[in-house]
């Protein structure tokens, strides 16, 4: 797998680079460029391809591991878990994008949560 094909980053970010990397990997999972059991590029390889610090890539990989999307094993690298739920990943990415947008326009996560709670459920008539 080609490292750079997974991710595009903006070096003058509104969003930290490690979050852009994690977002790019989530997108690759959602659109099936990555699937269950696939190995992610080695951290050094991806850092070199994106011209970023290795710590930045490792932070993105840790975030994805904390989300339960990948596992990291010494000597085996970082792999996508076998039970990937693409719909859930896509929804989580939309939520992250919404939180980022809300923050950019001065809406706190607490205010956003209240806006969501007060939005009528389209499935309930």
**Number of extended strands:** 2
Number of helices: 6
The CATH class name of the domain at 3-85 reads: Mainly Alpha
- Percent in strands: 5-15%
Throw out a few tags for this protein.
single chain, Arc Repressor Mutant, subunit A, two-stranded antiparallel ribbon, 6 helices
Walkthrough of the structure:
- The structure is a single chain.
- By secondary structure, the protein is mainly alpha-helical.
- It has a domain at 3-85: Winged helix-like DNA-binding domain superfamily/Winged helix DNA-binding domain (Arc Repressor Mutant, subunit A, Orthogonal Bundle), CATH 1.10.10.10.
- Helices cover 54% and strands 6% of the residues.
- The protein is built from 6 helices and 2 strands, in the order ααααββαα.
- It has helices at 3-6, 17-30, 43-50, 54-66, 86-104, 109-118; strands at 70-73, 77-80.
- The protein has a two-stranded antiparallel sheet.
- β1 (70-73) and β2 form a beta hairpin.
- The N and C termini lie far apart (47 Å).
């Amino acid at each position: 797998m080609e490292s750079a094909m997974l991710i595009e980053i903006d070096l003058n970010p509104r969003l930290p680079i490690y979050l852009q990397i994690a977002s790019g990997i989530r997108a690759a999972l959602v659109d099936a460029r990555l699937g269950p059991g696939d190995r992610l590029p080695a951290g050094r390889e991806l850092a070199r391809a994106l011209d970023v610090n290795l710590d930045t890539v490792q932070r993105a990989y840790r975030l994805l591991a904390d989300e339960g999307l990948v596992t990291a094993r010494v000597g085996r690298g970082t792999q996508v878990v076998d039970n990937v739920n693409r719909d859930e990943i896509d929804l989580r990415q939309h939520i992250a994008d919404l939180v980022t947008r809300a923050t950019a326009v001065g809406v706190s996560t607490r205010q956003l949560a209240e806006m969501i709670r007060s939005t009528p459920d389209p499935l309930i008539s």
